[in-house]
Fold this sequence. Notes:
This protein is of the alpha/beta class. It has 7 helices and 8 strands; from the N terminus they run αβαβαβββαβαββαα. The protein has helices at residues 2-11, 31-36, 56-63, 96-108, 120-124, 155-165, 171-180; strands spanning 28-29, 44-50, 76-78, 87-91, 94-95, 114-118, 134-136, 146-148. The strands form 2 sheets. The protein has a 6-stranded mixed β-sheet with strand order 1-8-6-4-2-3, with helices on both faces. It has a two-stranded antiparallel ribbon with strand order 5-7. Iron/sulfur cluster binds at residues 53-54, 56-57, 91-92, 119-121, 126-127, 151-152.
Amino acid sequence: MFEILKKSFKTGIVTDQYPPAPAGQKISVAPTAQKKAELFRKSLTIREVDTGSCNACEMEMNALANPVYDIERLGIHIAASPRHADALVVTGPVTVNMEGPLKDVYKTTPNPKLVIALGDCAINCGIFKGSYAVTGPVDQHIPVDVRIPGCPPRPAEIIEALTELRKGETTFTRWFRKFSGEP
Ligand code: SF4
């Protein structure tokens, strides 16, 4: 045990502030999505669904769990099953073979659920647009709450979108809105 403690003290904290996202990106987080995410402001569990991507978007998603980005420290967890997820992160255009499984996964995920389209392919089919094997972007099959563009989006951009999504309303802003007569 002392050996482990000694090693822990010697190693110290390996995580640091992750690299900032580049300015000028266009992440679309609808206010309705923020409202929907209110329940998940402290803890959000995501499940990744690949509907036909080239795997580069997955590589960036995988990087979220490494010691540099370490999304667990932000209260974001990756689930092994859609039954345990609050949000689905869908990558790739929806291929003919994956249209059915995508709809099944959507039905399996408990309500209220969020859908995040990650990468240009999920948003508008990207470079696969027009392919005979593609049935369309994600929002053609299931409702999408958040769009994170890029080919592929960088981990810092993904974290920024997730953080933006979870800002939502605080008790104070809700109180302020109520007493200032805002709708
Ligand atoms: S958006 Fe780019 S990186 Fe992501 S699946 Fe499509 S081609 Fe690959």
